[in-house]
Structures are given as structure tokens and as C-alpha cells.
Write a structure and sequence with these properties.
Elements: H1 52-56, E1 62-63, H2 69-74, E2 81-85, E3 94-98, E4 107-110, E5 113-115, E6 118-124, E7 130-137, E8 146-147, E9 153-154, E10 160-166, E11 173-184, E12 186-193, E13 203-204, H3 209-215, E14 222-223, E15 226-228
Antiparallel strand pairs: 1-7, 2-3, 2-15, 3-6, 4-5, 5-15, 6-7, 8-9, 8-14, 9-10, 10-11, 11-12, 12-13
């Protein structure tokens, strides 16, 4: 997916495909997303992923109070939107709920549907309990949360190329591909690709800036579009 508003170098880096350890903890359902978007180079030794904020909040894989995905939809306010979709790695239905972020709502409305940079993914387990599989925060409106025709979720930023799947039981969002650039004494690139939602078959990213930039064009995605319930 081409980065909006930026020139991307031509080329294709063939991606293979990360699992984030589940973080059980206190119940976390829905709330306002708040994260600062950075559009300039920073002195960084570590770059947060789109899933880091959710992981730090210990919400990934937590049980909610809802007994069905439809009940989640009925609880939404006017600042939130939703859609049902399929996500790679998990056979069941997935509810994607978009939230306000930095005081702003969803953006780029078209025929009643909106793009989003902040969304929580919900699944329903065999006992009928709704699970919060995690929230993704992409790098601003240049990087709307998107999905491939095979259900791989895309949530990147200026500093990271990221794709996601669900664990086989649907309880956790997990990285499929993750590559980052950090700035200090020059540029440093690090990352990996996995063919699925486990570490089996992992390959390391060994390229430089040209290869990193080309990653953004290496997959074909469409923005996840949500509609408002109220």
C-alpha cells in the first residue's frame, strides 16, 4: 500500500511473514484512542509498533462484558464506527471498531463509510464471550488501517512496515511482518517476516533504505471502511 503524501521508491522486496505474546489482564473494552503522530525524524533506539499501546495497556486477549459481537455494536457512540470482516489466521467473524483519536473522528467519508487509524478487533469464543484481541494505532492518515484480499491487516507508519493476523483461536492480534527504521548515527533497519501467525519459517530483513521503502508497495490492500451505528 503506497504511503499517502510521500514518494515511495520503486521496487519490490518479497516479504515472507511475528507473534506477540498474549497479555492477559484487567478487562478493557472500548475507549478513546490517543496517540501522537510524528512526521519528522527522531532520535530513536526503539520504535513502537501499531500494537504496542494496546499491549502496554494489557488489553490483548482480555474478556469483555459483552455476550455477542452485535451487543458491542449496539453499545457504540456517535464517535465510533464498525464493520465485520475476516482476518487471516482465524476462521470466525471479526468485528472492527474504530475510535476517535487525538480529538478527531474517522476520516475521508464516502457513502456513509469512513477510514480509520485507530481500531479495536473483537472476536467471540466458543462459550459466547467477546474477546478484545487488541487495538491497532497506525501512523496517521497517511497510513489508514487496511486489509488484503486474504485478510492480512496492514497498520504501518513512517518508521514501521507492519502486517497482522489473528491467532488461531482469535484471541490475539499477532504480527505477521514487522520492519522498522531507527535514527541515531545514521539509519538502522531491523525486522522479520513470517509466513503465518507463528514464528515457524521466520526470515530476517537484511535490506537498506531502498528495500524498506519498497515494502510499502509490496502488498495490495484496501482501507478498512467503517460505518457509524448512531
Amino acid at each position: 500500500m503506497r504511503r499517502r503524501g510521500t514518494q515511495v521508491l520503486a521496487g519490490l522486496f518479497t516479504a515472507g511473514m511475528i507473534t506477540v505474546t498474549g497479555l492477559a489482564g484487567a478487562q478493557s473494552v472500548m475507549g478513546v484512542c490517543s496517540i501522537e503522530t510524528v512526521d519528522k525524524k527522531m532520535e530513536l533506539n526503539l520504535v513502537d509498533s501499531a500494537l504496542s499501546k494496546s499491549g502496554n495497556a494489557k488489553e490483548i486477549g482480555t474478556t469483555t462484558k459483552f455476550k455477542s459481537l452485535d451487543a458491542v455494536v449496539k453499545s457504540l457512540n456517535s464517535d465510533e464506527g464498525y464493520t465485520y470482516t475476516k482476518v487471516a489466521g482465524y476462521a470466525g467473524d471479526v468485528l472492527v471498531v474504530a475510535h476517535r483519536r487525538d480529538g478527531k473522528g474517522m476520516f475521508n467519508p464516502e457513502d456513509g463509510y469512513y477510514e480509520t487509524t485507530c481500531a479495536t478487533f473483537y472476536t467471540e469464543n466458543k462459550s459466547g464471550t467477546v474477546i478484545n484481541a487488541g487495538t491497532l494505532y497506525s501512523g496517521g492518515q497517511r497510513y489508514p488501517i487496511a486489509i488484503t484480499k486474504d485478510g492480512v491487516v496492514y497498520a504501518s507508519s513512517n518508521y514501521t512496515f507492519e502486517t497482522y493476523m489473528l491467532s488461531s483461536d482469535g484471541s490475539e492480534l499477532v504480527h505477521k511482518d514487522y520492519v522498522q527504521v531507527t535514527y541515531g548515527d545514521g539509519e538502522s533497519f531491523w525486522g522479520y517476516f513470517r509466513p503465518g501467525n507463528t514464528s515457524a519459517g521466520e526470515t530476517k530483513f537484511k535490506g537498506g533504505k531502498r528495500d524498506f521503502d519498497a515494502l510499502y508497495d509490496s502488498i495490495d490492500t484496501k482501507s478498512i471502511k467503517v460505518k457509524k451505528e448512531n
